[in-house]
Amino acid sequence: MTQARFIHEGKGIDYTPAPGSDVSAGDIVVLGDGLVGIAKHDIAAGQLGTLELTGVYDIAKASGIIAAGEKVYWDADGNPLDGVALSGAATTTEPSNTLLGKAVADAANGDPAVRAVLLQNA
User: Which InterPro entries does this chain map to (predicted)?
Assistant: First the structure.
């Protein structure tokens, strides 16, 4: 057997949400120790869908300034400026949060989202 066999480019991966855990388009899912994907379409609980692992997204953020090029982390319990408290938000705070990517544009304190490119921390 060869040491490796090409499967696909890895821009997205198969994902099946646990029973009772629907995933909506735009939801951020963290798998294991830092694999971050974003649902491009709704995925019903127990049904096979796809998480995107690459791309540039506008991501709900907590208060604070995020400069272009700065690392962006996902706080699953964060408070977005525009949204439901504790529903998750991008931040620049590293401890206990998951690396999401890097900002590709400046986001001011009052901006509800930061534009970021996903980076996988494999």
Answer: Phage_VT1-Sakai_H0018
